[in-house]
Design brief:
The protein has 360 residues and is mainly alpha-helical. The protein contains 18 helices and no strands. The protein has helices spanning 2-20, 26-45, 58-69, 74-80, 85-98, 102-123, 127-136, 139-143, 147-164, 168-181, 191-194, 201-216, 218-229, 245-263, 267-293, 299-304, 312-321, 326-350.
């Protein structure tokens, strides 16, 4: 817990310093993102992979897998892999290049931070708010132990660039690369079409109706998904309401703020705001549906992360920054920061997920 508290303190100080005391130049923004990334990478990388304190033991597993990979030739190692070939090939390469399993704990957060912070730099109107929300709203906490899916989610953010550019071939290839790291990333393929829906009242109503139909037939989708990929993420389990209330609350607040911001804009300003938010809005709506479906089938919570946790920190920043009244904008941002930080502290106080021993 101390390591995570140190990280949020450092990121808070860096955010305040660069947001209020430094010119908002491209170079300063890059320096800020690099410093925040290095802070996260050091905290995640310096965890001792031989000691298990939390109930979630993934870090020990990843460390041990990298250590065991040293004993295999490449051909022998391939024969042991059943799925997620991309990750395990990366694991084998790290094991044989560095001959030190601790390195995997540095490489993974480096990949995650590179693609996630690149996404923030390219698409966020307030990178400082986005970094804080990246850390507090779930992506960071998930990445602490869910290495493979977190890498896949971050690579999908790279694929998102080609939704905006309307280039389907690189989008598909990058998404398939992400799926080689974690099979669930294949669910990101429809984003190429979802992300091109125009933000109009008619389209919102139609898409909401489609999501409602998808929710009703969600079990059929999950059965198909599990059958195709030979997976079974606790199909009979369900999630408690409190576990997802955060995401539903954020969705309705963001959607309401976006509506208010669009109403105050002239036609030209409205087009610009729609360009910055419409793709992420419909992606977010899809994720909320998957989170709702989680009450019926637990696997959909994993799927929803590609549509919510991976992008919410940029959508929120763009919506709150869009108001003409900058005092109102600052109030909304402050509310989101307070809300997300409180959720983060509640999370770390209720479980021992954040408990680690460090090598220094």
């Amino acid at each position: 817990m101390i390591g995570c508290l140190t990280v949020i303190s450092v990121i808070g100080v860096l955010s305040a310093f660069f947001a209020f005391l430094m010119p908002k130049t491209k170079n300063n923004k890059i320096i800020y993102l690099v410093l925040c990334a290095v802070t996260i990478i050091l905290q995640m990388g310096l965890r001792d992979g031989t000691i298990q304190l939390s109930d979630v033991y993934d870090v020990v597993i990843y460390y041990t897998q990298c250590k065991n990979a040293m004993d295999y030739s490449f051909v022998e190692y391939l024969a042991t892999i059943e799925k997620d070939y991309g990750y395990y090939i990366l694991n084998w390469m790290i094991a044989h290049i560095f001959r030190e399993p601790q390195v995997i704990l540095f490489v993974v957060p480096t990949i995650i931070c590179f693609f996630s912070f690149r996404f923030i730099y390219k698409h966020s109107d307030d990178i400082y708010l986005s970094v804080i929300l990246f850390f507090t709203l779930g992506f960071y906490g998930f990445a602490l132990t869910a290495f493979r899916q977190s890498i896949a989610m971050s690579i999908c953010l790279w694929a998102y660039d080609y939704v905006k550019k309307k280039k389907i071939v690189p989008f598909v290839l990058i998404t398939l690369l992400a799926a080689s790291i974690h099979q669930t990333a294949i669910i990101f393929l429809p984003v190429y079409f979802i992300g091109r829906i125009k933000l109009t009242e008619k389209n919102v109503i139609i898409y909401t109706a489609l999501l409602a139909v998808a929710f009703v037939f969600g079990n059929i989708f999950v059965d198909f998904f599990n059958k195709v990929f030979n997976m079974n993420y606790g199909k009979e389990e369900v999630e408690s309401l409190t576990g997802r209330i955060k995401d539903f609350t954020i969705f309705f607040i963001v959607f309401g703020l976006l509506y208010l911001s669009l109403k105050e804009k002239n036609p030209e300003e409205r087009l610009l705001l729609k360009y910055k938010t419409e793709s992420l809005t419909f992606i977010f709506m899809t994720g909320v549906m998957f989170y709702a479906l989680q009450f019926k089938v637990l696997i959909t919570g994993r799927i929803a992360k590609y549509f919510v946790d991976a992008i919410n920190y940029v959508l929120i920043a763009n919506v709150t920054e869009s108001f003409k009244d900058k005092t109102m904008s600052k109030v909304f941002k402050a509310c989101f920061i307070i809300f997300s930080v409180l959720l983060f502290f509640i999370s770390i106080s209720r479980n021992n997920l954040y408990e680690y021993v460090y090598i220094i």
